[in-house]
Every structure is written in structure tokens, then in C-alpha cells.
Amino acid sequence: MTDDKPMNSPYLLQMKEIYKSFGPVTVSAGVTLEVKPGEIHALLGENGAGKSVLMSILCGILKPDSGSIHYKGAPLNIGSPREAIRHGIGMVHQHFMLVPNLTVAENYVLGQGTPLRLINDMKAVHQRITALSDRYGLDVRPDAVIEDLSVGEQQRVEILKVLFHGTDLLILDEPTAVLTPQETDRLLDLMRDLVADGKTVIFISHKLDEVMRVSDQISVMRDFKVVHTTAVTDTNPRELARLMVGRDVLMELPRGSANPGQVVLSVDGLSCRNDLGLPALKGVSFSVKAGEIVGIAGVSGNGQTELSLAISGLLPIDAGKVSLEGKDITGLSPAEINQLSFAHVPEDRHKMGVLLPFTLAENAILHRYNQSPFAKKGLLQRGVTASFARDLIKRFRVKTPDEEEFLANLSGGNQQKLVVARELARDPNFILVSQLTRGIDIGAIEFILQEMLKQRDAGRAILLISTELEELFTVCDRILVMFHGEILGEVPADRSRLEEVGLMMAGQRSAPAAAMEPALT
Question: 47 lies in which domain range?
Fold first, then answer.
């Protein structure tokens, strides 16, 4: 770090010429970022552009190779996240940093060097959490166990945790990636409340509509540098997308009409329970035909996860039937379903889609590591595997040094592209996709959604489960809406029906669906 003289500046934060490399790999190539006090400053860029690395340097998780940081007019040299918190800088990471089997209050005092007197007086901790929760309308219970909370509740716990430690500069890394539309609206309102309360927010996001709604200033990163900074009033989503990707991005994907064929997947009266033993699906019935994309919309937690798991054999079915190409697959194990013409892009790629400590080549054959041509007489054919992985990397534009790179070193978007590439390489007749574009950038979203349309036009049957209505309206041919484990109605993918979909997501059954119910006498 250089330049230790105090400085008079209108900026709360100045990061100048920040360089960082891991061996031959550059992850920050002279970044300069300036943030004014009391503003929401959005940081945009494709996956792997260097956004999270830059913020990790600011928070003391990583140390820069060179460059300078000034904060509140003075030089800043942070050696650890604890030091960053002492300076009033806190970060809410995309993947939560909470211990699942501890309470909210226990997580707040864990690892922060909190005085023993405070740990011994947990009543004071509870009172402070409650006061902050009430002040910002976060509805966080200090005695709640983390693993019992929904994703949205855990997000609020993470934000309040940072505020609990006295943060002035709050960094939110993809905070809406796992939230429902309602939770997202609530979070954006909270960000404005924080600024009104004297805080400053750096908002890392891929979602241009949210950035335009809530930000004051926007900086765009590409190729590990900030390439443009502008006031939100002086730009638009199309320009931001072009700056992020380096080319014009299709904001609306062209697609022809579907030509549905025979029924490929049939779900009839499906009922099952969640991991708490409570009813999650209640007599769900629908079908997906060859050559169409059927969307499942709904607020997270209304049975979509259980539907995906039940269809793929990962959750026991209490009643009902699932058929694939006329064959009853109800009760088959995941391994047995894996032998069928069935591909699955799971909701949580880290838990169910990949092995992060493995290489890209190894992840590319996870389902087929013991099958020809990847195995011969019980031995892996590494040359064949490497060639197969290189082909997937090239076809799906996965940014990586080579196929032997560990998957953990790739951005979330590139990890997702590999999962999609692997599943489509199986040449399936049916594709089950959950939260396809969660946490990935606009360039990757455009590419992956175009690939889904290509698969539809090639005659594949696709079931797309998503909390992102824009995603569903962009590629689906018809949309089913789930509420409390039931299908409340079906609408064509016509944006003029958006209000109707929203009402069904809130529990109001559509008129056609209601008319199908038996009349009461």
C-alpha cells in the first residue's frame, strides 16, 4: 500500500490502482473505485470480473499486491475481517457465513473478540438485536436457530449481524440472488432506510432492474477493472449490459411458437412431505410435452423444491404417480432415474450439482464416471474425460484456464454453465431445471436462456422452476403457479398476465382453475 498522508476528499472510500494476482492469474488489474458517503453505489460486472475480489480486499479477507485505500480521509491497511469491522466496514457475502446449529445471538458474538462480560450477559445481546431489528423492520429473533430459518430470514440475520457490529459502510454481495420478489422489495427498501440513517451501501448485483431502482451511482467492472462510473440518472439497462459484457446484449430473446408433441413427463396427484414431515405437495397434477417449456412460478417455500426432488427421486412420494415417456418412475432411486433420458439442473449447485474440490473434468462426468467411454475395466480414461470437458468448456464459453482447474476457483456463473453443459450433453428427452439463472450475470443468463430455447426447438420437454418471473416470461410457453403445495392455475407466458400471476402467487386461485372445482351443494 502507498501514500500514507491524510487527504481531504468528498469520498468516503477511495481504492486506487488495486492489483491482485494468484500466481499467473490476475484477479484485479489496477482497479480504482470511489464511493461518496450516504449513497448506494452499485458494482456491476460479469461473473469473474473481479467484484467480489475487490470487496474481499476492502474487508481484509485478501491482501492486495499493490495500490492504496483511503477511508474517511485516512489511509487504510486492513489485515483481517475483524479489523475491517473495527473500522466500520462490513460485508454480507453471497453465501451466508452462519453456523447452522447456533442461535442468531450466538452467531453474533462468535469469533468477533467480544468481551467475556458480553458473552456472559447474553440478555444484553438479545436486547440489542431486538432493538436493531425493530429499528429497521427486519423481524429477527435472537433466540432462533439458524437452520430453522428460511433463506430470506437468514439473509436478514446476516445484514443485522453486520449492523450489530457498528458498520458505517455495508457491502452487499448479490443480496437478492436467493430472495423472493417480495423479500427483494423489502431489502431494497431497507437499503434506502440505511442510507437515510447515515450508512453507505455498496451493492453488488447482476439484476439491472434492481440497480436502476435503488442506486445513486453505478460502477461497471470488466476484465478486472472499473471501466465506467455514472449516476443512475445518466444511464439505462441496455447501456449497462453492453458495458458489462463488452457487446450489445439481447434484452428480449427472439423465440418462435412452440410445437408441442407427445407428453414426455406426467405428474398425477403427487403428494409428499418436506424434511420436517409437513405436507409439501398436495395432489399436484400436470404434464410437459416434447417441444415446450413449462414454467413453475411461486414464492419460494411453496412446494417447488419438493416437487423437483420428488420428480428426480430424491424425496419419498406419499401418493400419486410420476411417469416419464409412459413409464412409471414413481419410487425409483436417483441412480435408477439417472439411467433414463432425464437431466436435472438442481436448485443449489453447491449442494447437489457439483463437487467444488474436484476439477472441471471430474465434475463433467459425475453422473457417468463409471460408464463408457469415460471408464474402461474400472479405470478412468483421463484422456477421454479431458477431451469431453474441453468440448463442454468451449461450447458453453466457460471461463477457466483449462479443464484441470478446480471448480471452486470459478465464478458462480461459470460453475452453472458447466452444470448445464454437463446435463445437456446427456442428450435427454426431459430436462428438469430449478432456479436456472440464480446468482449469475446478464451475459451468462442470455446464453443459458438461449440454450434452453434451442433445446425446446430440438424437441426436448423442459420443466423450469423459478422464482424469477422475468426468466419464466422470457422462455416459457405456459406457466403454472404454485401456492402452499398446490397448482392454483395456468397462464400463457404473456406479460399482460403478470398481475394475474402475482395474485395467484399470493394465494388467489385463477378463475378457470376455480371453475374446475366441484360445486358445493
Answer: 13-245
